[in-house]
Amino acid sequence: MKHLVITVIGQDRPGLVGALSDTVYQHKGNWLGSSMSKLAGQFAGILQVDIPEESVKPLRQAMSKLDGLNIHIAEDTKITAPPAQLQQLTVTGNDRSGIVKEVTTRLGELGINIHKLKTDTHSAPNWGYPIFTAWFELEIPAEVAVSTVQQQLESLADDLTIDFEEPESSEAH
C-alpha cells in the first residue's frame, strides 16, 4: 500500500467531495483523514489515503480529469520524527497584519512543528475593533518546555493572549 497526501483547490460546488471520494473508492483507496473548507467561494482540502501501489498512477490520471480542480498528490516519505508532545495553542489579539507570520516564525525558531492551524476574525461588540483568533495543534519537541514557548510567544506583543492545553485525544483521525 502507498500512503498519499492529496491537496485540492477549486471553485466550490455541490458534489465536489462526492466526486473526490468516489474517485478514491474506484481506485481501491482507503480515505484515512481529511480537512476541507470553503473560503471566499473556493473549496480547499487536504486528504490522506492508502491505496494499492498499482492504483497510484490510474488515481493520478483520474484526479487530473476532475473538472475545475487543481490537485497535487504527494507520496508519504515515512520520515520518523523524534518524540514530541502534542499541545493545543490558542492565540487571541487585536486583528492586525502579521500575527500569523510572527507566531509561526517564532514557533519555527523553537523547532516546533504545526500539525494543524485554523484562524478566524470576528467583531468584538464591546471593543469596537475586530479580534483575531488562531487555533494551533503543535508538535513540541520533548526537550522544549511549554512554559518557554508561552513566554516566547507572549513577548511578541502586549495585546496577544496565549493559552495552551493538552489535546483531548492524541490520535490522528
Short key terms for the protein model shown above:
four-stranded antiparallel β-sheet; 23% helix; 4 helices; flat; alpha+beta; 173 residues
Record the SSE blueprint:
Elements: E1 2-11, H1 16-26, E2 30-39, E3 42-51, H2 56-64, E4 69-75, E5 84-94, H3 99-109, E6 113-123, E7 130-141, H4 146-154, E8 161-165
Antiparallel strand pairs: 1-3, 1-4, 2-3, 5-7, 5-8, 6-7
Descriptive notes:
The structure is a single chain. With 173 residues, the chain is of the alpha+beta class. It has 4 helices and 8 strands; from the N terminus they run βαββαββαββαβ. The chain has helices at residues 16-26, 56-64, 99-109, 146-154; strands spanning 2-11, 30-39, 42-51, 69-75, 84-94, 113-123, 130-141, 161-165. The strands form 2 sheets. It has a 4-stranded antiparallel sheet, covered by helices on one side.
Radius of gyration: 19 Å
The number of strands is: 8
Q: Within the largest sheet, what's the order of strands?
A: 2-3-1-4
Task: Encode the helix/strand succession as letters.
Answer: EHEEHEEHEEHE
Count of runs of 4 or more consecutive helical residues: 4
Contiguous uncertain segments of 5+ residues: none
Protein name: Glycine cleavage system transcriptional repressor
Subcellular location: Cytoplasm
Pfam families: ACT_4, ACT_6
Main location: cytoplasm
